[in-house]
Amino acid sequence: MADANTELSEYARKGLREALVVTRRGKPVLAVTPVKGDWESIAIANNPEFLAILRRSRASLAAGKGIPLDEVRRRLGLEKRKRT
Fold first, then answer.
1. Which of 6, 43, 73, 84 has the fewest CB atoms within 10 Å, i.e. is most exposed?
2. Are residues 30 and 41 in the same domain?
3. What is the number of domains present in the chain?
């Protein structure tokens, strides 16, 4: 672990440019990725509750329970999208 800390510190100092995958016995167990100012997106994308909401929403949409965008706009009193 001390070796990993030293190497990760070196990557941080030099500036990690792409994801770094850490393996244990040849299998990936961790990904270290550079954060370019949008750490909130990373936190949300890995939040189990948020991921559960996405799964439920996708299942609902797949079951035909979605609302077309034009209907959402109508309900909110927004202008219809102009098609180009």
1. 84
2. no
3. 2
- More confident call, 45 vs 3: 45
Both tokens of residue 74?
Answer: 């109508």
pLDDT digits (tens, 9 = 90+) for 21-78: 888 899 999 888 888 777 888 888 889 999 999 999 999 999 999 898 889 999 999 9
Q: Does residue 42 sit in the same domain as residue 83?
A: yes
Three-state helix/strand/coil letters over 66-84: CCCHHHHHHHHCCCCCCCC
CA distances from 62 to 53, 59, 66 (A): 14, 5, 8
Output the DSSP codes for 47-64: -HHHHHHHHHHHHHHHTT
pLDDT at 2 over 60: no
- Cα-based torsion angle of the residue sequence 67, 69, 75, 79 in order, rounded to the nearest 10 degrees: -170
